[in-house]
Amino acid sequence: MTIQNLFFSYSLQEIFKDVSLVFKEREHVGIIGVNGAGKSTFFKLILGELVPDDGKIILKKDIQIGFLPQVIGDTLPNMDLSVFDYLLEGRPIKQLEKELEEVYLKLSKESDEKKLDVLLKKVSFLQERLEYYDVYEASNILFKIIEGMHLDSALLDQPLKHLSGGQKSKVAFARLLYSKPEIMLLDEPTNHLDQDSKDYIIQYLKSYQGLVLVISHDIDFLNEVTTSTLYLDKMTHSMELFPGSYEKYLKIRNEREKTGERLLDKQLKEEEKLKKIIAKYIGGNEKKARIAKDRQKKLARLESEKVVLEKKKKSTHFKIEIKEKSGILPLKCENLTFGYVSQHLLFENLTFDLTRGEKFLIVGENGVGKSTLLKLIMNYMAPLSGKIDINFKTSIGYYAQEHELLNKDKTILENLQEFNMNKGQLRSFLGHFLFTGEDVYKKISVLSPGERSRVALAKLALTGSNLLLLDEPTNHLDPETQRLIAEVFKAYEGTMLVVSHNVEFVSHLGIERMLMLPSGQVKYYDENTVLYYQKLNEKKK
Fold it and tell me: What's the number of domains the chain is made of?
């Protein structure tokens, strides 16, 4: 793949400026850069979802590109399809065999030499594609991937629509591996992997013969699977390809920074010296004036060549304040029963309540209905039986795991315009979430999952709600931001109902009680229980 003089911008905001790169056929590239540098945008340009303002991305004709997005959501096709059938369709073997059969039929009836030649070439092409997809070994390859990814046999018969977010991601990854693309684009691929599956993926990618481009915060993963590192510079809108893993890239960058700091220090001292001479001799006699003029030229040259050090990464900063207190019992669920089909209930006769100011955790295996329970409380779905009482003084703020509450067709600013604030106030507020300048005019659809998470948190912070429903709020966030929002939620004075198996995050919140699903048992917070479910869910992802 070759990038030639690539320019791209969103409205007036420049993202890439005159980028030229060449990727080798079997190169494994880790893509890094601060949020908003354009990592996800780069993938969309490669996939043809976005068109460059100028320049081009050159790909081999008919090349197969496989893409694993960070958030799978409802992007899986035909949600009634079983997991196994979805995986099986990863390689177009049935279509190729059917097409080959049709060509053979035409051959048996054709007598024209030119048409025969065309048909024979078609046969050769189809046979080559079948060989590429290992037609005789494909089934064994698929079962090895299923085993390596630790996909439970019971899961294979389930329809895609019944999978949890983590299960969808893992199944989509397994299909991507089986599909055998020539280019693989991976966006935070280890987010939903247990350690055994992660080890399998690492070994798989090490032997993968195509081009891999991977965006990840998982440094250990990058060091294991990458042979080079692509740095996207948000300030200069450029890209630079470094040889070696992320660890090697860091050494090169650190050495460059030290060299840059030394050179800048030298330049600043020279600048100060020149300014003093200019101040001393300017306005003097002819000889002094010549000296001053000469030093002015040197100063101008020095300033044009001055080293510009990269700005240090800023961190998100915000606070969630409640507008008014809720009642003593802001939420009460009684004998709640729900299932997508009556023959398979997720939970039955579920009863619990929340007291004002309490921080309450929901734990359980993947797929038992944790996110579903929050959606029932939000009245997005109706229970089969039972009732949910929300106190008249309760105001709810909801953080959805897959950012469903954000309007993807509107800008960041437009998504917050429901609040009684003028544009200047909103822009100032969004600055706490690292959205500055023209950033606020970006549509949600073009943001990375991490950026969408920050918009969702900004919206949550503006609600002034006294009851927060949080569904995996640390997904898509780097470790530093996870620690910061843990402190924010710890300081929150309202009531909180949270779904999370991130032990480090949960331990900071001051959780008092836990609801165990599907049993419905309520018990006092126990870190070991959360750790147990974290490990269990990792194994079953």
Answer: 3
Name the residue with tokens 């008092």. Answer: 512
Q: Between the CA of residue 388 and those of 157, 187, 353, 463, what are the distances in Å?
A: 33, 38, 10, 22
The H or E element spanning position 141 is: helix 138-148
In terms of DSSP H, where are the helices of 391-526?
412-415, 423-431, 449-463, 479-491, 503-506
Long-range contacts from 298-307, C-beta under 8 angstroms, 24+ separation: 298/274, 299/271, 299/274, 299/275, 302/267, 302/270, 302/271, 302/274, 303/271, 305/267, 306/264, 306/267, 306/271, 307/260, 307/263, 307/264, 307/267
Beta partners for residue 214, in sequence order: 30, 186
Cβ atoms of residues 507 and 513 within 8 Å: no
pTM of the predicted model, to two decimals? 0.61
Measuring CA to CA, how many Å separate 90 from each of 84, 201, 452? 10, 17, 29
Q: Classify residue 137: in a domain, yes or no.
A: no
Cβ-contact 302, 270 below 8 angstroms: yes
Question: Phi and psi of 314, rounded to 5°?
Answer: -85, 160
pLDDT in tens, 206-248: 888 899 999 987 888 899 999 999 999 888 888 999 998 888 9
In which residue are the tokens 């609600």 written?
Answer: 463
Residue with tokens 């924010």: 488
Question: Which positions ≥6 away from 528 have C-beta within 8 Å?
Answer: none
Q: CA 16, CA 337: separation in Å to the nearest integer?
A: 52
Domain encompassing residue 96: 92-132
Same domain? For 357 and 395 the reply is: yes
